[in-house]
């Protein structure tokens, strides 16, 4: 599927994004890894949806980090982004940090999205490992079920070229702006989940060393009529390790 890389001006911020596919709009909220590349997961989703993959402020080549101090700031930015793109009731899909952002968005603006998919979302309890102090090897152990695989080392190399290392530093810096203290969670979020009144799917992974199934089920228990799916044999980076399985689960849920 042909996709496009472009830059969007959102209230003075230069936002990098990828767009591909045809069909109903799907807005993907990326993780702390800042995965702004046309991955097999996006390719599979693009068979049914027009997939929008923006880089949050400060991630990849997006500017505007100086305006971001909290998850709420990213939520407000996302409303501006959706207005600029003229997205009306897209499906919103978020991974990890992006799942947390998506949940926070939905507690405030459920009427602006058609449905919600949270994949291994952080947000309600501190994650199991410290992503800010972890070495590349330790980080692979936290997010991949096979940390020394070519796939894992491709995403998180021990040593990368200058561009790769710069992007990794920017991603960690941007994540720290919203998730340093308290560490990647909002203690008030659990009590606000009742506000989410769109069809919601939560996807967990049984080998996730960062976000437990119990944590994922907190979302499922707090969001009325939500559905929970656990992908066996995958780690936290489940849409990268099992792209077709996760895409099939998302498409089945959103399309039926």
List the defining traits of the structure above.
8-stranded mixed β-sheet, 9 helices, single chain, 256 residues, alpha/beta
The H/E string reads: EEEHEHEHEHHHEHEHH
What profile does the largest beta sheet have?
8 strands, mixed
User: What ranges have pLDDT less than 50 throughout 5 or more consecutive residues?
Assistant: none
Determine the strand fraction and express it as a percent band.
15-25%
Number of strands: 8
- C-alpha termini separation: 22 Å
Q: Percent range for helical residues?
A: 25-40%
- Find the structural class using helix and strand composition: alpha/beta
Structural notes for this entry:
With 256 residues, the protein is α/β, with parallel strands linked by helices. The chain has 9 helices and 8 strands. Strands 1-2-4-3-5-6-7-8 form an 8-stranded mixed β-sheet, with helices on both faces. Helix 1 (40-45) links the parallel strand 3 and strand 4 (50-54). It is globular and about 45 Å long. The mean pLDDT is 96.
């Amino acid at each position: 599927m042909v996709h496009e890389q472009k830059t969007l001006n959102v209230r003075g911020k230069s936002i990098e994004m990828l767009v591909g596919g045809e069909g109903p709009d799907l807005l993907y909220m990326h993780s702390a890894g800042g995965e702004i590349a046309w991955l097999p997961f996006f390719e599979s989703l693009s068979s049914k949806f027009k997939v929008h993959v923006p880089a949050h402020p400060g991630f990849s080549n997006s500017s505007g980090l100086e305006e971001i101090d909290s998850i709420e700031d990213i939520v407000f930015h996302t409303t501006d982004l959706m207005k600029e793109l003229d997205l009306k009731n897209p499906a919103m899909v978020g991974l990890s940090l992006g799942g947390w952002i998506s949940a926070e968005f939905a507690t405030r603006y459920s009427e602006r999205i058609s449905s919600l998919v949270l994949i291994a979302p952080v947000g309600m309890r501190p994650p199991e490992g410290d992503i800010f102090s972890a070495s590349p090897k330790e980080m692979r152990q936290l997010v991949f079920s096979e940390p020394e695989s070519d796939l894992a080392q491709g995403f998180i190399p021990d040593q990368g070229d200058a561009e790769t290392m710069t992007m990794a530093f920017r991603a960690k810096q941007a994540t720290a702006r919203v998730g340093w203290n308290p560490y990647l969670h909002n203690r008030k979020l659990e009590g606000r989940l009742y506000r989410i009144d769109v069809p919601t799917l939560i996807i967990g992974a049984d080998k996730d060393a960062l976000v437990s199934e119990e944590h994922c089920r907190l979302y499922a228990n707090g969001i009325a009529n939500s559905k929970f799916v656990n992908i066996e044999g995958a780690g936290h980076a489940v849409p990268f390790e099992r792209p077709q399985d996760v895409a099939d689960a998302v498409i089945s849920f959103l399309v039926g």
